[in-house]
Amino acid sequence: MDVKPVKKFKAVFGEQPHILAQAPGRVNIIGEHTDYNDGFVLPMAIEHRVNMLASPRADRTIRLFSYDFSEEVQFALDDIQYDSQHPWSNYSRGVAAIFQQAGYSLQGANLLFSGNVPIGAGLSSSAAVEVATAMALRTLNKLPIADDQIPVLCQRAENEFVQMKCGIMDQFVSTMARRGHLLFLDCRSLEYKLVPFSNSEIQIAILNTKVKRELTQSAYNERRAQCEQGVRILQQWAPHIQALRDVSWTEFQRYRSRMPEVIAKRCEHVISENHRVLEFVQILSIKDFKAHHWRKLGMLMRQSHVSLRDLYEVSCWELDVMVELAESVPGVLGARLTGAGFGGCVVALVQRQAVEALSEKIQQEYLNYTGIQPEIYISSAADGASAKMLS
Ligand code: GLA
């Protein structure tokens, strides 16, 4: 880790940090807007991460310093309030509040975090802050929290404290990911499988549109409510349905015409996207995996984008431009928006020898079309969160 945040910690708090916790951002390969429908997702952790330095305090105050914003907030553990002046602080506030609600007692702490996960780019910088905070607080307070409970508590922090009704994917992969693997998660049972994913011929490219829509949170919560409405409608005819996860394709075809069109489109995306994830994972596990299987995987990613654009309606012009430019480069097998949508990043499956051509094409043409300078990150599948004592 860069030494500057450590020096800053010393300057701000007058002592050395005792603990370094870190948590990565993520890119979702396929399975979008399925997590809060009890469905399947297939993300991987990326090398971009949040580092959280921590030391204990004798009182019941948290001092939290953001290295990147160069701002500090303080709050009392007995009265944790939402802070609209310093929105970046709410993820850590939420985690401290939820830990206590869950019955874990905390002592005060000095915390300083820094990171390189692009903010608001759909790469889960907020989940990385939550998980890094949780790892730091767990270590500092020696709390008996199992690894797979960390994402559950962090999701609650985001749902209940930040009021973003996100699913569990981001926090889960940020905590549980393994280098060289994708993480296939059943968001209902929280059972997961690490799927080996390292191939010298293929790379994952992340193409940042640099567009951030202000209304993401309300549009996201609205999509979630529409899915819940879909479940309520379908339950009238098929009472076994608890979530869109339970709806088979045949069942959906039977009832589709009786549903309001917008709701039907949202449901169709989720139901078909779950199938794509299962197919993707099944193809990756083929023993006799051949080059043409990559093309099939790319096709599933393309179908996912079309569905997110036309049925779920969470794409935007810049994301569509980015996907089209990427897919026009020979050797790009498939590309799709990743994360919540409404801006942010595109993820592309690319043959290694095509990465440079892709990069050049995007740098020039995305700028020509949109007037925005994009960013490109090539990342391999990275490790999940960790915390260690510094001595
Ligand atoms: C955001 C949320 C996730 C997930 C994705 C869409 O990243 O935090 O829980 O719903 O959007 O797949």
Structure write-up:
The protein has two domains: 3-198 and 382-389, Ribosomal Protein S5, domain 2 (2-Layer Sandwich), CATH 3.30.230; 202-379, GHMP kinase, C-terminal domain (Alpha-Beta Plaits), CATH 3.30.70. 40% of the residues lie in helices and 24% in strands. The chain is built from eleven helices and twelve strands. The protein has helices at residues 4-13, 90-101, 125-140, 150-161, 169-176, 216-237, 249-255, 261-284, 291-310, 317-327, 355-370; strands at residues 19-30, 40-56, 61-66, 71-76, 109-115, 181-186, 192-196, 202-212, 332-338, 343-351, 375-379, 386-389. Strands 1, 2, 3, 4, 5, 6, 7 and 12 form an eight-stranded mixed beta sheet that branches. The protein is globular and about 60 Å long. β3 and β4 (71-76) form a beta hairpin. By secondary structure, it is α+β, with helices and mostly antiparallel strands. Residues 28, 32-33, 35-36, 166-167, 169-170, 339-340 line the site of alpha-D-galactopyranose.
